[in-house]
Amino acid sequence: MHPRRILIAQGGGPTAVINQSLAGVVLAARGVSDVDLVYGARNGVRGIVNEDFLDLGQETAANLELVANTPSSALGSTRDKPDLKYCKEIIQVLQAHQINHFFYIGGNDSSDTLRILSLEAEKLAFPLRCIHIPKTIDNDLVSNDHTPGFPSAARFVAQAFAGANLDNAALPGVYVGVVMGRHAGFLTAASALGRKFADDGPHLIYLPERVFVLENFLADVKQAYQRFGRCVIAVSEGIHDASGTPIASLLAKTVERDDHGNVQLSGNGALADLLCEEIKSKLNIKRVRGDTFGYLQRSFMGCVSDVDQREAREVGEKALQFAINDQRNGTVAIKRSGAYSINYAVNYELLDLDVVAGKTRVMEDELIAASGTDVTDAFRLYLQPLLGSGMPDGFRLRSPAVAKIRNVGG
Amino acid sequence: MHPRRILIAQGGGPTAVINQSLAGVVLAARGVSDVDLVYGARNGVRGIVNEDFLDLGQETAANLELVANTPSSALGSTRDKPDLKYCKEIIQVLQAHQINHFFYIGGNDSSDTLRILSLEAEKLAFPLRCIHIPKTIDNDLVSNDHTPGFPSAARFVAQAFAGANLDNAALPGVYVGVVMGRHAGFLTAASALGRKFADDGPHLIYLPERVFVLENFLADVKQAYQRFGRCVIAVSEGIHDASGTPIASLLAKTVERDDHGNVQLSGNGALADLLCEEIKSKLNIKRVRGDTFGYLQRSFMGCVSDVDQREAREVGEKALQFAINDQRNGTVAIKRSGAYSINYAVNYELLDLDVVAGKTRVMEDELIAASGTDVTDAFRLYLQPLLGSGMPDGFRLRSPAVAKIRNVGG
Known about the structure:
The structure is a homodimer. Helix content of chain A is 36%, strand content 15%.
């Protein structure tokens, strides 16, 4: 057996815990005697074809721990989606550096890159171990209970809506918060965990798993506003009409697409502004405010789930263990022990790359309320343990009202 | 002396610590023997004319502590700006309930309400002690070192930019974050405290204290982008042209005004979207993203400065002490002991209401860099102690680059 020469890269959108997985691989590799070197590629696969490598063997353990606790991809990332030609270039560089292990931390696009790469390496009889380490705030990898990065982003969304609900209760009106998630509504649904009291918002939740009909939306808002005297609404950026066309892209003057052919949904406030305008003009409600959570929800420094941190570290460590103990490529998957419950534990499995590669998980029907505008208790039991310890909690005054004396105001 | 009958209300935009001040008054009043009752008005002055009072004497100390740690106004708030007629109605209700102390927690509009009210009470020989308790995330009260609520919002903005900078470093491009603050740029300037390394963003900061010229903005962005290969920009919602017209209102199809005659700047993403479009089209940069921090920055649950919490509690407690020990109306002001420094302590003074009422503090020239697009060290020394303990910190990999072997990529 040749000495192990390891390369690690990070792809796609950053998360709050993606560097935990990086540290997980690097630190675990230090305990393996036949590991010759550990490199990191700058900016994902782009850094491989550019031969832009860092020698991670020269990092101190202390600094790796500090970087692990720092959000966003420490190696840099990329939106490049390699085709076969790109993958051949990657392999040439890996061969030149005699790298025989490649760990790619990313979402389903990154796992698909590994799938193509592993097939090409096999064709060339190049002994390359390809291990995918999951991360995505969208939580849209199939065959995973959840993906690292999602719990921390979900915690941000829950805390944001808990606060926005209190703000909206103090100065009543309609509040629309637009949350990331192109096809999967998990992150938007996390807004429900910001609720505590029965009349807390979000009062309505719109997910990409259900067709968005503007007339129904306006009727829902009107009804909630009449009932609560206010209305807090969580909307996924990926809501779409019956044809599948995103509502956001119906509005955009120019449609921007990324290298994966996806329409750019984040990075502007157009969807929130449109929905607010509709509510103002059609329902004649004056105080209507919209926020687009944008990049804050995936990169805010200082809102992280300790469960997410621990698991992101573990998937990195497990990736290295699988690479050494299993003689095959694959993707590390998080599996929950038992049903959705307040009792929580996970285990890790190595699945074949093509199980997750290029596939998209969306919210299962059991997690979405029959109304289509709320989540179920199953979802609450699913998400609650992931949010980690120390979730802030809100309380209300419980004073009785004072009897009126004049009773003429109004 | 009549027994003291106390009324407390909260006005204007909520903050993360406004309930600390409420608890500060209520709990301190419990130690005063001649306090007969403590009421809270629902929804600010609106609750007074509606006789919508809660008997805060029936709150437990434990629940008051929990509410103190909950963001947003627990009594509810209002944007009502009472005129003389409204103030006369208020006085009639106060007289009916024999209330002789009114504590109003709010910004400069709320202090102006108290000023009008105190003059009218004096005219009617109605013995009403009026004490203003400061709060505003805008930090725009004159004669105060800073105002409760601002430090926690500033902490949110600093943490948000620290994370957005890391996100932008991983996937380079231009990022525009729009921050609240109509006339005063303190909160936008807080973005500078998110920086750590010399090349960290925000690379440019636009404040309402300086005239915004689009051509200069584009030239600044171009230069920063060439230098850093990316650009993170903090923009105040209140930026305006040489005539004083907000850039945001130049764009809005319909201009919404609040009851104080102010144009509504928050609650939509129009300003960020406009600036992003200008950068994309004029500078030909593809990846340009804009976020409007919106209501998250003042109500996010779980981002608070412990210094802010402590001081917000103290201004409430001091308000009660001043009401008892000083025979006059006034506003509680926070004064720093000594110059801006890493050594930090404050003291509280009771100032006349007309010192702060209706006046607006903006950033002093010494806090703004000569370039007009950055802050000074004086500002950093001003703000740093306010952010509180446990600020998250970001770290970078320090690995050396690996020598290239093929050196053909690009």
